[in-house]
Amino acid sequence: MASLLVLALFCTVLPLILASTSEPVRGPKEFKVGNYVGWRQPYVNETELYNQWAANRRFRVGDSLRFEYKNDSVLVVDKWGYYHCNTSNPISVSNDGNTVINLVTPGPIYFISGDPDHCKNGQRLVVEVMTLHPISQSPPSIASPPQPYWAVSPAPSPQSSSGVSVSVTLVSVLMALSVNVVTLVLGAP
Ligand SMILES: *[C@@H]1O[C@H](CO)[C@@H](O)[C@H](O)[C@H]1NC(C)=O
Ligand SMILES: *[C@@H]1O[C@H](CO)[C@@H](O)[C@H](O)[C@H]1NC(C)=O
Ligand SMILES: *[C@@H]1O[C@H](CO)[C@@H](O)[C@H](O)[C@H]1NC(C)=O
Fold this sequence. Notes:
Elements: H1 2-20, E1 30-32, H2 49-55, E2 59-60, E3 64-68, E4 74-77, H3 79-84, E5 92-94, E6 98-102, E7 107-112, H4 116-120, E8 124-130, H5 158-187
Parallel strand pairs: 1-3, 2-8
Antiparallel strand pairs: 3-6, 4-5, 4-7, 7-8
The protein binds 2-acetamido-2-deoxy-beta-D-glucopyranose (3 copies).
The site of one 2-acetamido-2-deoxy-beta-D-glucopyranose has 3 residues, from loops.
Signal peptide: 1-19
Subcellular location: Cell membrane
Keywords: Cell membrane, Disulfide bond, Glycoprotein, GPI-anchor, Lipoprotein, Membrane, Signal
């Protein structure tokens, strides 16, 4: 019985997993941030430059980002540092003009320019890194386990049970009718 349940769950979950990884499998990829623009302060007409660049791409664990820049820097920061353009507590700092960041952990990773003014003008980037293995993506949090979609639905409401009884009544009426018809036909001389 238990193994049957496991099999049933497996059969329902497997297509979902396959669907979520339906993107063609590819090897690790290096993305050049900003394409030909590179990593620089955006003009006033392109403050969403890096968000748009990131929105059109999918980043996976194992991929890497190459930042090319002049007279600037790349800081990996936390979410707070990203939104406040705060450079005082970076996770890492690079200013060699050609920086490769390997994406090793799933989840968001935040980059800003070391120049707070450049950052405020849009020289910042958040990249959502996806894992290669969707199953391991669920965080080990036990605080609020997600409701599985196959959870047993609540007891049928009175409305739906009355619907069932209506159709049962209909079926019995139809059966009674057909019995009558058969009796009539057979009984006819
Ligand atoms: C923004 O303006 C600059 C000139 O200041 C221009 O070269 C560039 O093509 C513009 N970018 C966009 C996305 O319109
Ligand atoms: C480099 O950047 C600093 C601060 O952003 C600026 O004061 C300086 O003039 C820049 N140098 C060049 C060569 O662009
Ligand atoms: C940046 O954050 C630190 C605390 O982490 C704070 O002391 C500092 O004043 C902030 N700097 C700016 C420019 O907001």
